[in-house]
Each structure stands twice: as C-alpha cells, then as structure tokens.
Amino acid sequence: MAFRRAVKNIVMRYKSAKLVDVDVCPVLGIKLTYDNSHASYLTASFDELLSEFLNQSQIDIESVRLTNPVPDDVDQRGILADPELLERRVAYQRNNAHLQLLSAEANLHRLKS
User: Fold this and answer.
1) Pseudo-torsion of CA 10, 13, 17, 19, nearest 10°?
2) Furthest C-alpha separation in the chain
3) What are residue 38's DSSP bridge partners?
4) Under 8 Å CB-to-CB from 14, ≥6 apart: which residues?
5) Closest Cα to residue 64, out of 92, 84, 94, 90?
6) Which pLDDT tens digit goes with each residue over 4-47?
7) pTM score, whole prediction
8) β-strands 99-103, 37-41: how paired?
C-alpha cells in the first residue's frame, strides 16, 4: 500500500489531465467524470511494475521501512521512510507505467477477470 501511495500523485494527475480529452469510457461508453473514472494500468499491472522495480533494485519488500501518516492525513496508508527509494519508485513509475482512463465499473470488471 505504501508503494501505491508513493505514486498516487502521478496517477491522479494523469486522471485529471485525461478527463479533458477522454469523456466517454472506451469499454462501456459511459460518460466519464472525476468521481466515476479510474486511471487503469494498461500493459503491466501495478503489481507487475512493483515486482520488476523491486527485482531491479534488489530489494526485498519485507525490508522496506515505513512510517505512519499523521492522524489527520486522509490517506492512512504507510509512507516509504527512505526518500531516495521514494524518488526512485516515482521515477520508475513515470518511465514504465502505461495508463488508460476507464469507468470505475469497466476497470473493476477488468480486475476481476
């Protein structure tokens, strides 16, 4: 969850920017809004990208140190304690993630399949 939190801003910026160009879900034809849309991983999944990043970095996920968010943080997922690791993960995401904008319904159906 901390690795998802680490790339959350990239994913949310992608979603906001794409909503300007994509107004209908390419799978279900549903009109997209910020609330009913998801930025979905197109080629490699989040888990595949994370696994590849950890393997390339020779990091065992169990060794990754986390810190707790402050109590009033809306996102209560753990935070990567090592700023260099966070920076490398964000750069890896920017260079390797391929996203698409889908309706939440289409994305959740895709994830179940």
Assistant:
1) 110
2) 44
3) 102
4) 39, 99, 101
5) 84
6) 999 999 999 999 999 999 999 999 999 999 999 999 999 899 99
7) 0.84
8) antiparallel
